[in-house]
Amino acid sequence: MLPDSTRKDPTMIHHLTIPRGPIQLAADLHLPDDAPRDAPLPAVVLSTPGSSVKEQIGANYASRLAARGIAALAFDPAHQGRSGGEPRDLEDPYRRGEDISYAIDALSTIDAIDADRIGVLGVCAGGGYAVHTARTDHRIKAVGTVVPVNVGAAFRSYQPGGPAAGLDRLAAERAQESRTGQLARVNWLPDTLEDAAAAGLTDIDTTEAVTYYRTPRGHHEQSTNRRLSRSDSLLIGYDAFHLVDQLMTQPLQVVMAGRIGNTGSDEFSKQLWHLAPNPVDLMVVDGAGHYQMYDEPAYVDVAVDRVAAFYSRHL
User: Fold this and answer.
1) Does the pLDDT at position 1 exceed 50?
2) pLDDT at 211
3) Sheet holding 113-123, edge to edge
4) Which positions ≥6 away from 4 have C-beta within 8 Å?
5) Sign of the C-alpha dihedral computed for residues 228, 230, 235 and 236 taken in this order
6) CA-to-CA distance for 76 and 97, rounded, in angstroms?
7) Measured in whole angstroms, how far is the alpha carbon of residue 266 from the centre of its chain?
8) 116-166 pLDDT, tens digit each
9) What is the C-alpha separation between 153 and 199, in angstroms, rounded?
């Protein structure tokens, strides 16, 4: 049985709450409006970028998958958006993976969904989270990624003095938090283009990221652009691709942006492709930058056409 819904032609959005231990995750299930009532649908769980909420990139991809006949569920991670969890703004990569499995638990109880035909689609850091989860949750039957990022490797790469020095700084910060009771937060991105320019961050990827997340183009009030500093020690120690070569047997679709930038998603895409035991398709979207793959129809539509065909074959 499905709860309250809103219509977004040609799809229907059902607003769900997903039990996750003592808290609940807020989720939107996008369904084809003309889906047959006598046959359960294949479904895909969206794993979204760090700092984003379900109404942003997740909705862009979920609505398009639903329009192509595939149910798609986008959710707010624990501690973020409209989902429960304290402290707020925590980015715990291990919990992000668990969130996906809890989302599959919920989908498996819905009559309209075929529990044996569930896949995952991860975007940016969410691509790494999707891969990491699929290694050990083999209820996931097919894995798709769009501009995937191994967020642990990314965080290790830009610690001044190296990752161990970064952990030393974070240890001192957490000790200070314990003494004061005040949790430190840091920006994911500069809040404005002016702040980015003042910090000397004028490269095209940073500019497009700020333009997406912090202007009306993609801004959402629930996306705070803040994470707890203590998240960073978890991220530094995380490897989204650990044991992929041994454990992730599901078919894999990778979509890359054609314009190489500074997010590392091009190299991560290639690394994942070579590690995966069952790579099926690698697509390069010519002309697209990393953040243009979030919402620009000319690029998102061609990516969704490809991943929808992949899911149709493998779910």
Assistant:
1) no
2) 97
3) 5-8, 11-20, 23-32, 71-75, 41-47, 113-123, 140-146, 252-257, 279-285
4) 14, 15
5) positive
6) 12
7) 16
8) 999 999 999 999 999 999 999 999 999 999 999 999 999 999 999 999 999
9) 23
